Amino acid sequence: MSGGGASRSDLEVLPRRTDLPIALVVATFYLLVSLTTEKITACNGFGDDGCAYGTWALDFPRYAFEGRLGSYAIQRSFPSLVAWAALKALHLAPTPPRVVAAFQAMNVVMVFVGTFTWLKIARILRIRATATLFGTLALFGTYGTLKFTTWYPVLGDLWGYALGFVCLYAYLTRRLFLIVPAALVGAFSWPSLFPPAVLLLFFWESRDEPTRAPLRLHHVVGIGAGVAWVLLALDLVRQRYWPPSVGPVETMPQLVRLSLLVTAGYWYFALRRLADYGAFYHPRLYWRALTSPAGALGITLLVLVQWFQKRASVPEVAGAETWFKFTVISTTWKPGIFLLAYVVYFGPMILVLLLRWRDVTSLLARHGAGLVAATVLGTVFGIDCEERHGYTFLALVMPFALKVLDDAIVDVRALTKLAVLSAVFSKLWITLPPYPTGTTWDYPAQTVFLSQGPWMSNMMYLLQGVVVVLIAIWMHRVLKQPDRALAAPS
């Protein structure tokens, strides 16, 4: 598997002059979809979670400065500040429709930033033109990007996605001046962006040629993580723990043991490759990071941001601990629900990530300890069945999956079929209800929740699962064909 692609000519990749036009086309298409698609109507159009974000944007000084936000809420507050400030600068009274429009405009900007940055990343990774164009569709034509955020605009999801691409681009090009503001904005926009950004900074200088883990310790790491997760899940099951904000969910309690087995397999499969990075087992890696300017900067940012967030907010229950317990218990509801949820939300390219994980992790390792460490952290979001929490994680790793797909020399016909499947998985052709009333596993609510892991009905879990497994079998055969051709005697 080629990591650098030095043999490829500049003519095989998209020229730099196409970045801006392509990003503008994608952003314009997103804007048109956003203006014409149906919208959620709950809380004056803000939605459920978005009710808080939209309300803050109506009078940000009142909620953030006079009343102070919660310790978790402050980590989601920056988009609301931008919406309020933009309306203020335009001398427009902050009404719910205008706040919704402001969030729609910010989403368009984030799609533009994400697309523009992705195109530059594709050039750095030497991804050829056809695969780059397909990647643009696969990354920004998904249900999670093109459908859900246009139906439900008052969220910060696309901030985490776009800034994830910015952080990756900054890391690959060694632009400290770019990753620092991206990390700071992320710390107050998308909680799962700041930690991996700090890891990228901490290991900024650690980009040596990767070596294998000593004494097969990567297997120990994978098995240990799987066993620990299963024990945590069993403990929560015994406590009859139920996440307070989830509500009623259709589960498969008779398959809990199978669910735990699949989860343990995920951890072993994911971490045995990532942990097969020899530098992680040597103290000099951490000493060099601690004594480097970028490492010191990363630690300083972490301390200052946490200090400010604590000082400027009031304690609240919601946060990392609540999310972690939800993530653990949700893996017991249906076998492999988190894997299925990612595919139906972000499209069939997720299957390339899974089927070629070994090659993807090899590419990651060639770009240094920072990217590997950030991906290790991201595997926790990979097991979160509310898949929209994983935007930043995917922004960091999916370009490498597309690089692997490009290096596999998949023929144009197979790539065309994959593009069609990606478009179908966007569910742009489905009309979502103005508000998902009733039980989550019945219609019309299930029209929304069939793509949301925690609330996916048992029937849709089985139906979508069969479809995804069939696509995975086809993709496995497509990806194996070049390998068989290379192995065949001449």
Topology:
Blueprint: H1 19-36, H2 42-45, H3 50-58, H4 60-66, E1 69-70, H5 78-89, H6 96-124, H7 129-140, H8 143-151, H9 157-173, H10 176-187, H11 194-202, H12 217-238, H13 256-274, H14 283-291, H15 293-311, E2 313-314, H16 320-330, H17 337-346, H18 349-355, H19 357-365, H20 369-382, H21 391-407, H22 412-425, H23 445-449, H24 458-487
Parallel strand pairs: 1-2
Task: Please describe what this structure looks like.
It is a single chain. A two-stranded parallel ribbon has the order 1-2. By secondary structure, it is mainly α. The protein is built from 24 helices and two strands. The longest helix has 30 residues. α3 packs parallel to α5, α7 packs antiparallel against α21 and α19 crosses α21.
Keywords:
490 residues, two-stranded parallel sheet, 24 helices, 1% strand, disordered N terminus
Distance from first to last alpha carbon: 20 Å
**How does the major sheet shape up?**
2 strands, parallel
Q: How much strand content do the residues show?
A: under 5%
Counting DSSP E segments of at least 2 residues, the number of strands comes to 2
Q: How much helix, percentage-wise, in residues?
A: 55-70%
How do the helices and strands follow one another from N- to C-terminus?
HHHHEHHHHHHHHHHHEHHHHHHHHH
Strand order, main sheet: write it out: 1-2
Overall mean pLDDT: 93
**Spans of at least 5 consecutive residues with low confidence:** 1-10
Radius of gyration: 22 Å
What structural class do the secondary elements suggest? Answer: mainly alpha
Give the overall form. Answer: globular
Work out the helix count: 24
